[in-house]
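User: Here's a protein and a ligand (3-(2-carboxyethyl)benzoic acid). What would the complex look like?
Assistant: Let me lay out the input and then the predicted complex.
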Amino acid sequence: MSDGVSTETKAISLLHPRFVAARKRLPTNTLGCIEFGDCLSVSKGPGAIPHLTVPMARSNQESFVESWSSTAPRKEGGTRGDLIYSEDGEYLFITTIIAEGDDYDKAAESRYRQIFELIADLGYSRLFRIWNYIGNMLDTAPSGLQFYQEFVKGRERAFANYGGTKLMPAATGIGTRGSGIGLVALASRTGVPTHVENPRQTPAYEYPEQYGPKAPSFARATVLNHNTASESYTQSLYVSGTSSILGHESVYCGDFNAQLTTTLENLAALVDGKNLARFKVHKGFDLTDASLMKVYVKRSTDITKAYETVRKYVGKQTDVRYLNVDVCRKELLVEIEAVFPSVSRLKEIK
Ligand code: 3EB
C-alpha cells in the first residue's frame, strides 16, 4: 500500500494452549511446552522446542503435556544465560530451572532479572503469564524461612527493580512432588495485557508480613488483547493460581469441600464482567467459558471429591486436569488456575 499509513494489525499469530498426552506428537508450531511428569528437567540443544518437565504426576498415566502452540511457525529458539526460549514474532516462551540446593532468594532474583532483560532485548516486552513450580515449598530453608518465602523475596527485588506492581502478570506459585524450581514465562510483542485483581481478595503484592517478609509478585489474572487483525481481535484471560483466600486470610481450614467452593466462587467473581469493567476490560466471562483448568490438590484423597463440584461450575468443553501437589500455605488444600479464550469484533469495543 502506498498511502503511507502503516498498518500494524495484519497477520499476527495467535497462541493456543492445550493439554495433550505425554509422549504423543506435539501440535504443529508448538512454541514451548510443560510436561507434568516425574523429573525436573529442561530440553537443551539448538532447534529444540523448549520443554520443561516438572515432577508433578503420581504415575505415567497421570502425566500430560501443556502445549502452547502458535498459528505461525516457530523461529529458531535459543539460550541466554540460564534461560531457554523460543519465539514466533509475536510470542516468546521462556523456561528455566533452579537446582535444588541453590539459594532460592538469589536464584529467583537472578532468573527474573534475566527474563526482564530478555523480553526487552528481543522486543517481547509484554509479560502476560508466569508459572513457578517450587519443590519442597513449605520446608524450612537454612535461613529459617520457607523455601517459598525465600523465592518470593528474591522475585520481589527483581520486580521492584523492573517496574513494580503495575507490570506484574498473572502467575501460579505451586508445589511439586520433587525438588528444585521450574519457571515458565510468556510474553507478547504487540498484544496488550491488562492485569486485574479480585474484588474478594487483597492483591497478593499487598499481603501483610505474616505470610513472609516480602509479598508475592503477581496479579490475580491478566487479560491479553491479541493484536490479530484490523476488524476483529481476540481477548484471552489467563487466571492465576487461585485459592480459598478471602481478603488475605485462608478460610475453611481443614474443610476441602468448603475451600473448593470458595475457590470456584473467587474465580467466578474475578472473571465476571462487573469486575473486569473496573479495569476497562469490555467483556466478562463465566466459568463455563473456560477452555483449560488445572486443579492442584494437596491431599491425594481429596481429588475424587472435587470432580463433581468442579463439573457443576465449568463448561462441557473445559479440559480439567488434577494434580496432587503442595499449595503455598500449610492450611490451603486446593488451588485452581484457568484459561479463557474469546473472539470479539473490534467495533463492539467502546
Ligand atoms: C494466593 O492466592 C495463593 O507466588 O506466584 C497463587 C498464585 C499463589 C501465584 C505466586 C502464589 C503465587 O496467594 C498462592
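Summary: The two ends are 28 Å apart (CA to CA).
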